[in-house]
User: Which sequence fits this backbone?
């Protein structure tokens, strides 16, 4: 972040470990999903989500604006709700319809949010099950704004 006085990777608290980001991705209750309309306008909406090792899962109505945007252009940004200690994913979204994937996502959702949804909740005709695989992830600790910014880069 040029111009913000960010110190070197071994100064301040130093670069954050991936476990710091993974813990926040797992613990967040809500996430913000940023997508782009076909005409280029930005669109941001909150969702429930589940971090599952290397993918952030969420669902949305199959006819929602965010689903339609992500089908047209799968590039997106997803952030945790905590702006003080944020984790920001830049990645690619994909809609999944395979029954084994849908079962995994509904199991994660029910465990995290104490719900009791059946597999029918993720019926692809009604609700899209979307997985976002990170290309880049950014994180920082608000208490050490100049010493903790970290970027992780993943193969797409």
Assistant:
């Amino acid at each position: 972040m040029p111009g913000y006085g960010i110190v070197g990777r071994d100064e301040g608290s130093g670069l954050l470990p991936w476990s710091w980001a993974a813990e926040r991705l797992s613990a967040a209750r809500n996430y913000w999903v940023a997508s782009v309309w076909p005409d280029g306008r930005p669109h941001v909406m909150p969702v429930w989500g589940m971090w599952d090792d290397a993918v952030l899962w969420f669902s949305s109505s199959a006819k929602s604006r965010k689903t339609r945007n992500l089908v047209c252009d799968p590039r997106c940004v997803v952030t945790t709700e905590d702006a003080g200690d944020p984790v920001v994913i830049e990645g690619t979204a994909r809609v999944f319809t395979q029954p084994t994937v849908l079962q995994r996502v509904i199991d994660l959702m029910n465990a995290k949010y104490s719900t009791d949804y059946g597999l029918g909740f993720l019926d692809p005709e009604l609700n899209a099950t979307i997985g976002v695989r990170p290309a880049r992830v950014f994180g920082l600790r608000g208490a050490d704004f100049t010493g903790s910014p970290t970027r992780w880069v993943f193969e797409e």
The longest helix spans residues 99-113.
